[in-house]
Amino acid sequence: MLAGPSTPLVVDLDGTLIKTDLLFETANRFVTRHPFQAPRLAAWLASGKSVLKTRLAEACDIDAAALPYNEALITWLREQKAQGRRLVLATASHRRLAEAVARHLGFFDDVLATEGETNLKSRHKRDRLVSLFGEHGFDYVGNDAADLAVWKSADRAYVVSSSATLVKRVRALGRGVEVFDDGRPPVAASLFKALRLHQWMKNLLILVPLFAAHRYGDEASLLQALLAFFVFGLTASSVYLLNDLVDVADDRHHPRKRRRPFASGDLGLVHGWLAWPALAVPAFAIAGAFLPPAFLASLAAYFVLTLTYSLHLKQLAVVDVLTLAGLYTLRIIAGAAAIAVPLSFWLLTFSMFVFLSLAFIKRFSELKSARGQGMSGQLRGRGYFPDDIEMVSSLGAGAGYIAVLVLALYIQDSHTAELYRNPHLIWLACPLLLYWISRAWLITHRGQMHDDPIVFALKDRVSWVVGACFIAVFALAKVAG
Question: For residue 201, what pLDDT is reported?
């Protein structure tokens, strides 16, 4: 890299210095915070892109410190600054946002950005730079085809991209070219990660009514249940994407969630807004065409409740965990609707309490982590304070033990005797469940629990053994004379 310190180094922002785009960041924040005002975006855009950027910058703040930066590029820029080079941030993002980034980084001498009626992009950016530094009087760091006009007038081109096609087009301009990795994995890999297919295991709850009603030998019911599982999986992945779009700013402050594709910048926000309806629409179409109306209603209730949770309910203490427990129970309701069997009072009650306990485990883990970091204020995006941890523990453990009590009472139900030849053997499942819940809470108190206890259970060998024994008890009660 032979450029001397006298040559100004001009750096693009969106997709170059940061692995995201501040226009999409602010638009995403505006829509998720004010969903009923989303049509205003179209009105602002109709007045010009610079107007849209100005209105969004006025309506939405960004946390410059939490943005996903290209760390390798920043390290190099600091080295250039140490050598005495003049660094200029030139971006199509609004000046207010660009200056926030420049203040955070602290090594830029000047900021050129969109303001007024000028959208500082492509030719507009080139003209501004040429007027300041002259033709070929600056080096430029950019990342996409819109920067080709700028590179053409630059002395040296620095390309932050993994696109061989773009690099080839820049080299064709006859400029000296250096290439930086953009730090992003392939879009397909990031999208696959964002879908959280491993979370589809939760949707196995849809099959619970099939087995509880002993309809697993009915081929038609089995096929309906499996189709319902697939449809619910598509819907779940859709709402996971939507949830991550809503939570992207908060996730960047979380020690684990900041590595999620949207929060880390590995996947563009636009991909998320295109992908979630592409999953939800076919899911509802299949449900409407091949599954009972009651299942479609359950699926719609799940989608709406999840969306409401992401937008607001997760910020309300206790309401959030009740909602999470309700979402798990909705899967069981949907499974019963898919095969048209009556809902079991005992199954729904058991489900609500056991999943309420697991939801409290999630909150306890977050509170324990916050307390360990010395936090004293309200958790970001939650309705809890670190001092709530003892109460959360009491409520969660109590809910788990009530679930065991519900299971014990189920044994005495007259309908149970019709389903099992020896229902009293189900008593053996009670100590198994007591052990598993007690152990889960002990692990949580020790700070060894995964943020999601369901994911923990799927990876925990002891949980698999307890689960196998639990199923074996019910099978034995069914066949033992």
Answer: 86
